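Hi R.,

Here's the chain you asked about this morning:
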Amino acid sequence: MSAGPALLPRWPRSLGAVAALGLLHLGLALVPGLGLEPETNVLLFAANLYVAYGGWLVFRDGRLAAALGFAAGYLALLGLLLLVLERESLFVLLAIAWASVYRVPVLRWLVLLFVLCYVVLQPYAFECFLPLALAVLAVHGLRRTGADRFRVACLSLGLFVLAALLLPVLHLVSQDSPQTLLATLARPDVLDALGSSLATAGLATLLVLLGGVPLAYALARGRFRGRGAVEVLVDLPILIPQSVVGVAILVLLGPGSPLGRGLEELGLGVAGRFAGVVLVQAFVSYPFLVKAALTAFEGVPTSLEDASRSLGVGPWGTFWRVSLPLAARGVLTGVALAFARAVSEFGALLLVAPQPETGPVLVHRTFLQGGVADSRPVAVVLVLVCLWVFVLLQFGRAFLPGAPRGGAGEVPR
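And the predicted structure, written out as tokens:
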């Protein structure tokens, strides 16, 4: 009961603030030539009343700098949206959002980013806002861990560059409607190309998995002369241009070579054949799986393998029961990277085996026939399908065991 009289002096001040704001909007309605309709004026009055209450809450917290920042942000919205662009409805929406989330720093930055993207960076609002919003959330999460400013600056710069690099792909994906993409996906040539891409890339990934995992394990556990040269050779397919890869395969296995003629007689030729597509994809994707698996095996403590051997388990059983399960997440990451690299191969395929037609080759042919307008929906469908497969492979990592923390020679505590 004693708290009631203490609250009474606030009412005259609150009513006075509401009355002052109402008189201000009444004066705006009477200004000749302003063109402010009564309905819009009432809507602006309600929004400004809410903003005034939000500003009072910020000021009540006792932080003058925060209150000045709140006022500066509101005035910036007022000048940009209401006076310059004359977009009253958007001003009302963003002003209410500004007042609602200002006291939560990360939400405040997201609102400012929204204004920047959807007002200043049109017509690239969506493709700019999405990666930058994720960057803001990541930087905020790092700051909450107590990271120093240098690490925060490094993350901010790296994510900004990443967002700039992803901008063309995000812009591409946002260009066509779902109806257009579904109609494109139903085309027979698109279905055939996607089927060829998934089949050949899957088989190529299986081949590099069978050959790459043993090599990665041997490099991770072996210390022998020439190990550095082997690692350089593993990286070689990344360094060679795609056109050179295609020419090299044709020189060795093409119809004009002795080996190629022998394979053609046996019905195993690679030029313009399914086997040629798989061979090219396996060549370019091999390093990605080996490097990822090598890192994964190096993260498995050797003490666990030694313990398995001391219990009488042989090298083969130790590999299957200890080493490979603990490195499974890293190996699956290598599988995802190898598949993505295989399914995206284009340059060497165009020389060695343009048939059966894969997705990238179809995009190129459609571009030559109809330009950007015809090839764009095909490219978007290819991106979405491959991205979905890649996400599924990455999602599968969560269900696999991981190596215990600690160095390769340490016993985890």
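The radius of gyration is 31 Å.

Let me know if you need anything else.
M.
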